[in-house]
Amino acid sequence: MSSVSENLKVVKDGLPKGVALVAVSKTKPVEMIMEAYECGQRIFGENKVQELVDKYESLPKDIEWHMIGHLQRNKVKYIAPFVSLIHGVDSMRLLRAVNKEGAKNNRVIPCLLQIHIASEESKFGLDAEELKEILESDDFKSFQHVRIKGLMGMATFTDDESKVASEFRSLKQLFEETKEHFFSGDSGFSILSMGMSGEYEVAINQGSNMVRIGSSIFGARNYK
What we know:
eight-stranded parallel beta sheet; 19% strand; alpha/beta; 8 strands
């Protein structure tokens, strides 16, 4: 086995049952993605729209493509026909754009609402009050072509594991409160996406059931 196959096996073997793996393939060539695919991996995550579209067009059609990066409203149309999950919905305006493009493509687009849990201001996401405002709005209730499947968050980039654990714990609590108040009858609201290569074990310990892992599988990122 090559390094991708070996790394993927190590990661998968270490994941508890019920935790989904998004293999983050951004900047990686299709050959590496195919190697992971041939080892059974079917969920891949990209953070740039053009790269996601290019890879969708050239790779097997049973791959589930997740958009994990910050998504601009004017680019939703390019991924709306095929994207399996949008992780980073961080505003009502973006949600409105996703619903509009879902209608054009006659499909319901699954999304996660991104919550800001990190101390860095540079990270995107809603706070608890903004989340509540969206879910209580008449606009949201009228949407027919978007489905909220859960929440996503990114922790502070730090070596302080207790801080990271605390941020993930706060997101887990918000997830439970949101489910109880807004999605109690919806079994589809079930995804808590948190944890990347350096911290996914911490995230899983705090309740994550979807992790986004790139460098631990494919090696260091190729910065373009």
